[in-house]
Amino acid sequence: MDREQMIAQHNAIKSNLRTLTDAVEAYSSTFEKNISSDDLEAVGQISQCQVAMVENVKQMQSAIYGPLNMVMLHYEECLRSSSVRTLLEMGVFDALPVDGSGMSAPELAKKLGVDENLLVRLMRVVVPTFFEEPQPEVYTHTANSKVYLDGPLRANFKMMFDEICVASTRMPDFFKKNGYLNPISRSNNPYTFAHDTHGLSMFEFLLQHPDRFNNFNDAMQARSSQTSLPYSLFPFKSKFGEVDTTNETVLLVDVGSGIGQATLAIREACAEIKGKMVMQDQKQVIDGIATPLPPGVEAMAHDFFKPQPVQGALFYYIHRCLHDWPDSDCLVILQHLAAAMSPNVSRLLISEIE
């Protein structure tokens, strides 16, 4: 790096620091204003500020690393994710004490029945991001490692690594083979290509592998319950309150609900509002709901490529579903919802990943 590049990097770091400081101050102000409220809208405002901070941190990291190290960062992230996945399978996350006490590499290797040298090499990749090493080759949990003890969050990481990353690594081959055309098929896309699904869509393929399908459902639970809540950005409570409802009023139909994390959160936040909420997903998903549903929430097996059976609901809510399907399929899904909506009564809410 020459002198001019060093000066440019220095100025970029200072500029990004000012921007990041402003974002932190905005977050702090919003946090103090809303933290005492349990309202979903308040949570959403805090979440929006957190997203802004994350984007600013990324820009700061880019400024500090510089172009060359940003290229090398891909290498680090690839190795780190692979090491975490291997250590999960090895059993390290579960074997380490959660009380903060450490365990030496020989003890850990003996307990797990694994090669000590391999264990040390893998741990070297993930310390200090995930684990701490207070003494040479003695390891303890951190908050970033303990989070993998949560079942749904662990499932989310496994799904990302085992399903999505495999497809991502084959994307160059897929697009080269297919003339760099935008994929519009359920059964011919990077996922089906990488996993060799033999003409099946991703979801049809997962249904043939129950362990992977169950892990996928657990992962979706984590994305709704543990990450920033997209449904907290809409004022459900105040909007429901604008309508004179009864116990039979269908307040919400959660289309592609999974096991109902969003529905349950909205119902809890709007407990005093009369009416019911309906969560819909494939039969295999609905049948997998293990806990009884609270009053005012119903579960319904439904294929959203077929006509919507619940007519005239106040809100039809579809979140993190449409990105899984080509445009032609999305039109079918939305047309069925439009046909079920009552004029001047029903509204459609779409919440998608960026």
From TrEMBL:
Keyword ATP-binding assigned: no
Domain O-methyltransferase dimerisation: 78-149
Annotated O-methyltransferase C-terminal domain residues: 193-350
One Pfam family of this chain: Methyltransf_2
Gene Ontology molecular function terms on file: O-methyltransferase activity; protein dimerization activity
Keywords annotated in UniProt: Methyltransferase, S-adenosyl-L-methionine, Transferase
InterPro entries referenced in this protein's UniProt entry, alphabetically: COMT-like (IPR016461), COMT_C (IPR001077), COMT_dimerisation (IPR012967), SAM-dependent_MTases_sf (IPR029063), WH-like_DNA-bd_sf (IPR036388), WH_DNA-bd_sf (IPR036390)
One annotated GO biological process: methylation
PROSITE patterns named among the record's database cross-references: SAM_OMT_II
Official protein name in the record: O-methyltransferase
Organism this protein belongs to: Pochonia chlamydosporia 170
